[in-house]
Each structure stands twice: as structure tokens, then as C-alpha cells.
Give the backbone structure.
Amino acid sequence: MSHLSSSASELTVGELSKRSGVPASALRFYERQGLIHSRRTNGNQRRYSREVLRRVAFIRVSQRLGISLAAIRCALKLLPDGQAPTTEEWASISHYWQVDLNARIAKLEGLRDRLAECIGCGCMSLGTCELANPDDVAAKHGPGAFRL
Amino acid sequence: MSHLSSSASELTVGELSKRSGVPASALRFYERQGLIHSRRTNGNQRRYSREVLRRVAFIRVSQRLGISLAAIRCALKLLPDGQAPTTEEWASISHYWQVDLNARIAKLEGLRDRLAECIGCGCMSLGTCELANPDDVAAKHGPGAFRL
DNA sequence: CTCCACCTTGCACCTTGGTTCAAGTCAACC
DNA sequence: GGTTGACTTGAACCAAGGTGCAAGGTGGAG
């Protein structure tokens, strides 16, 4: 057996790193940001419970979808304390992520279509072009995705 | 007449800022990044030729499409020295931007669809989920056609 | 008890796209 | 020539999402 048991009920940060594929520095960062939590040993070392593994998986999947850590933190706050999401909770949060993805897709499609028009008109005239004059000034505030 | 002529053939940074709607600090930044250029007066002040106005418009439209300044700089390097893009050149560059937009849209759609599958399966299991394994690492040596 | 791998902390640094500030200079008008 | 607003520079700072390092502490095996 190895030196820090790999079958213990709790994980060290290094073990969590290996098993999740996430660098330990990132895990410490997530903890500072309040996305995951750990217990401390007498000697001040982190010990993670097994459900944190699922929590980290959730975080990485969400990030891969382009969700910010701030929004992920908001989502995780909706879950029971320190628990990994159940299947139903995961499905419910994923629904928000889907709405967000669809909104981003729609936005890009809108831009693409306006660009197509714009190529035809060759405008670039700063006063008249829709692309040059972003009307939707409000679109850039808050933690973006996830305004509940 | 105002203090710095607003009808001169060259523009000061403040005039360019007002006419383009881009903060002077951003214009200086673009110049440091090599996206726009200026002549200097004896007293070391910037003077922009009028075509820079169109160049800045091009930059802002491109940014609005989600193109990075680095990519915009590459695009602008394809143009004649210090000239604003002609209509044809603008159309030709815009085609690249369209390809880029379509690629981003396709990527988001792929993620959305995989998320939809994933919600059904409730996997989150780190070893088998496609969303959790961006590089297809797990897909190769798994039990065959089993996906998700 | 020793050894050594692993852990702890804080701090500095990276990228992108800028903003803000302080100190000093230029140019136009009177 | 003097006033005043616009201009110049570098440096510091912001957000996000981390990485890397140095100095020192922990903990399990032998």
C-alpha cells in the first residue's frame, strides 16, 4: 500500500487531484473561492470527503460549457450543504445551463446573420451599421449566465 | 472654432475618440498593440489620418463578433499599409469571421446536445462521461460502443 | 526516531482588454 | 506671454482562472 492510503474514506488534495484530473493548485483555488470544502487534520492538512469528487466533476463539466466559476458557485449554493448533486438536482441545474447555452447560441447566430447583411452592404459607416452600434448595452453585466 | 480644429484633415486622439466612440485610452492601447498607427507632430502628439476612423470601426465590429485583438491584428496585416479596408477586403475578411462564428456556434450546439444526453443519463462519473472527458481519453479503451 | 514524500501558506506572475492616475508637455486663443 | 484644455508617458490596477515557487510543517513506513 502506498504511503497515503488510496482507499481511505477521505482524500488528500493530491489524491483528489489524481482522481479528478484537476491540478492541486486549481483545487486549492476552488476552495478559496468557496466551490468546494474540506475538513482539516490536526496538522492543518485538507481532507476531502468522497462526494467532493462528484462536485469537482460537476464544476469541470460546467466550465467546459463556458459557465463562469461565479455562476457555478451560485448553482452549488442551491444544493444541500457540502453534498454532491443528486441526479435530479444535476438535471435541474443542467436546465439552467441549457438555457444559457441556447441564449449564447442565439446571440452568435444573430451576430452571424447581421454580419452576412453587413458584408452585402459594405457599410462600416459607424453611424448606420447595426454591428457598429451595439444597442444592447445591458448585455454585459452580472455573473453573466445564471441570473436566477 | 474650437481650440483643436474639428475639420482638419488629421485627427487628434481626442477627436478620433469622440468620432469613433472609443475611449482615448483604448485607442492608445490599440496603437501599442499595432492595430492602428499615427504620425507624430513636432511636439510628439499623435495625428491620425481619416482612414483610421474606418479601421477603428472595423476593429470594434470585429470585437463585437468575439474576435480577439490578436486575430484582428492578423487580419489587418493582410491589408495595404495603413489603409482602411476597401469594401472587397472587408467582405473577404468578414468571410473568415463568418467561418469563425459558425465554428463557435457548432461547438456550442455540440455541447448543448451532449448536455441534453447527459442530463438523461445522470452520469457525472468522470470516467465515462464525454462532457467530463474533453479529450476522448476514456472513449478508447472502454467497453466498446458504450458512450456516456 | 529518522526519512522523505506530501502537505501548508503567501506571494508573484501570466493573459486579455483595457482604465485611471500623476507628473509633465503642447497648442491654441487672447 | 499667459492661461487652459488637450496631450504625453509609465506604472499601477481590475477581472478570471489559475500556475509556480520558496520556506516550512505533517505523517506514515521502516
